[in-house]
Design brief:
Layout lengths: L2 H14 L4 E6 L25 E8 L18 H5 L10 H9 L4 E3 L8 H7 L4 E2 L5 E2 L7 E8 L19 H5 L17 H4 L7 H6 L9 H5 L4 H5 L5 H7 L2 H7 L2 H4 L4 H8 L8 H23 L1
Antiparallel strand pairs: 1-2, 2-6, 3-6, 4-5
Length: 303
């Protein structure tokens, strides 16, 4: 089967299984990847005869809860609730099965295991990397959950990368309350609230600015002009339409006075499928802090 037909069949398959963005890129080394000793810098370290990287994106702009603006409700993020916190994996299984049935090898990227997904997405033509270090798509903003496949199938590779459209904008950098973006295009993970909310020793400076955030942070994404339309009116996709039916249940669940009573068993049963990797004790600690903050807000409101 020729590369044109094979590429077309994969695109058609991706459309049928709810993937919103798809690109093919050459499986060559990412020479500018910062982690020189990581096998992610070169797809051929995972698959020696690799020819193509397939990058898939699922739009999660509508995976949000209106109640997040209320301090009495725990706030997470679109990525957190999407079930793709650690990359898009399961939705890619039909593509992997198809490739293997055609006689090719194909391995999926799990938890960033074999690919620098944002760089791969840029190479595949899905967007550019913003000053908040996230992928920005003209159509989807930063709200694409990404997944990747490395394969020895020779597909139609993208040859023209998107130009960077951030220009002089620095809204994401200014918005970060912990200065995790003090250097454009580089996220200082050790300063990032998303990271800090997942570690044992939560710094006092985070507790001061976290508000009702209990599992992730989207402050830089909320400030990004490329997300404005998505914040006001998200796109209609399979993912967003499916999530709309769950909003009421999720809002009831994240009501802090009830959430603070959640047991470890309940945490595993209700949130386990989200695959965040965040231990119960960390989650519960964040809920307790958010609960205290909510009580303070209510007292100030009632004065």
């Amino acid at each position: 089967m020729g590369k044109d037909l094979l590429s077309e069949q994969i695109i058609n398959l991706s459309d049928s299984i709810g993937i919103d963005a798809l690109g093919f890129a050459e499986a060559s080394e990412f020479s500018d990847y910062a982690l020189r000793n990581s096998k992610r810098r070169d797809p051929k370290l995972s698959l020696p005869n690799a020819k193509t990287i397939i990058v898939a994106g699922i739009y999660i702009g509508g995976v949000t809860l209106p109640a997040w603006t209320n301090p009495s409700y725990g706030r997470t993020s679109r990525l957190y609730l999407s079930e793709f916190f650690l990359d898009v994996v399961k939705p890619l299984e039909p593509i992997i099965d198809f490739l293997k049935n055609e006689g090719y090898q194909a391995i999926v990227c799990e938890s960033g295991s074999i690919l620098p997904l944002k760089l791969a997405a840029v190479r595949a033509g899905l967007g550019w990397q913003g000053k908040h270090s996230l992928l920005i798509s003209k159509k989807y903003g930063t709200f694409l959950a990404l997944g990747g496949i490395t394969t020895n199938a020779d597909l139609e590779h993208n040859t023209k990368e998107e130009s960077n459209r951030c220009h002089n904008c620095d809204k994401c950098q200014k918005a970060c309350p912990l200065a995790a973006l003090d250097q454009p295009y580089v996220l200082n993970v050790k300063k990032c609230m998303s990271y800090l909310l997942q570690i044992e020793n939560l710094p006092k400076k985070v507790q001061i600015v976290m508000e009702n955030r209990i599992g992730d942070c989207e402050i830089c994404q909320q400030a990004c002009p490329w997300n404005k339309n998505h914040l006001d009116n998200h796109l209609v996709t399979n993912m967003t339409e499916s999530f709309q039916k769950k909003i009421e249940d999720w809002e009831n669940f994240f009501y802090l006075p009830d959430l603070v009573e959640l047991s470890e068993k309940g945490y595993r049963e209700i949130l386990g499928h989200l695959n965040t990797g965040i231990p119960y004790n960390i989650f519960h600690r964040n809920v307790l802090i958010a609960m205290k903050k909510a009580k303070k807000v209510r007292k100030m409101t009632n004065k």
